[in-house]
Amino acid sequence: MTLVQIIVLALIQGLTEFLPVSSSAHLILGGKVFGWADQGLVFDVATHLGTLFAVFVYFRKELLGMARSCLRSRGAQQDRHNRSMVLFLVLASIPALLIGFLAHDLVEMYLRDVRIIAWTTIGFGILLWFADRIGAEDREIGEMTLKSAMLIGLAQAFALIPGASRSGVTITAARFLGFSADSAARFSFLLAIPVIAAAGAYGAMRVFTGEAAIDWLQFVLAMVFAAVAGWICIAAFLALLKRVGLVPFVIYRLALGVILLWLVS
Q1: pTM for this predicted structure
Q2: What is the Cα–Cα distance from 124 to 205, expressed in whole angstroms?
Q3: pLDDT per residue over 36-81, tens digit each?
Q4: What is the maximum alpha-carbon separation in the chain?
Q5: Which of 153, 142, 143 has its CA nearest to residue 89?
């Protein structure tokens, strides 16, 4: 990979990992526009680690609070809330991790077709619009329950379908359950931690067992650019939600899907 290719694709991955717009669709579009081949396993591992670092940095206060609460045998109401949130995030991650482990090869073999990605980009975009339109705005992240967390976690499993968008399906589910757009996005980003960590660990295991050669300079560059882009994306997205809501991202998804269909027609 050239330096330009590393920078552009790492920025695309970092910027779209946390937006409800499908990172896989953007990587395919970037490859089509510039005529680039698939970025490969090492690049995927580097960008996963970069985006994981980004969400850790942005939510460092919340995560440190959860860690401290888990180390206390007793505590105030905030400690009980933090421990519940850790439990919710762990349990809600299980469906996606389990289905991902069982169906990974199936997804890679049959569902990475550009037409499928285009239609899922459009279809899940319409679903996001519908959820945002009918969803209430009266539940905050502090009101998360185990039932709600598990339903969002089950929805996250649909993100295994390329084009669905992990953050897109989890935000959609949370909006259907009546959480505000801001709370839906924050829980979605926290829920990304176990899944991104698992994907990065699995890819790293494949790299270090010799499945792919690693260029450490390219690896570090991809990780750094993805981390910076990911942090900017989280901060900008949460700020934009308060001003413009989710509709612009729905419109963007529909346009992106149509462009992909046009490219393969």
Answers
A1: 0.90
A2: 32
A3: 766 666 788 888 899 999 999 999 999 999 998 888 766 678 888 8
A4: 61
A5: 153
